Amino acid sequence: MDTLSPEFSSMAVVFLAAIITNNILLTEFLGMCSFIAISRHMKTAFGMGVAVTFVTFSTAMLNYAIYHGVLVADAPLCAADLTYLSYLVFIMVIAGFVQLVEMILERFSPVLHYNLGIYLPLITVNCAILGVSINMLNPDLKFGFGKTAVYGLGSGLGWLLAICLMAGLRQRMADADIPRPLRGLGITVIVTGLMAMAFMGFADMVKM
Known about the structure:
This protein has 208 residues and is mostly helical. The protein has one domain. Helices cover 67% and strands 0% of the residues. Helix 3 packs parallel to helix 7 (127-135).
């Protein structure tokens, strides 16, 4: 049986690391606002997670193409060094893509738009999505387009995993005898910290 190519193996490592050992939410604590607000019920948490995964995956590829095609010095479409505009461009791409998705869903799939519409505006301000686009520029990672796409998908799925785990725990804790000062936000933050510590146990399994 043929062995897997080094490139495929490298992409698999990036994918697994993005989900588990480098989980964008539990290691960098990005996207906490939506995570805490939407994780009360499994249905809404899953819907938000799927929407975040799709937008993270899509915008990571778009921002990579724009950065290397326009912003860097001597890029194919622009010779000037515009990298100082990276953050602004990334934010505009994310916001514009979310609006485009919302319009397309409203036009061609009203039912899906109704189910996800409540989550779409929140995605625009989810800093985890911007964090993925910023991390892909890390010179130590040396991401190409393929690894960027895999990293974006894995990061979105990692965020989905984290919010679904929290939703399940919060539903189980609904009937628990929690001290009054810790109810709500307090216990949620504590559980998030415990989840992050648990995920640290996978730290040496895969590294990007």
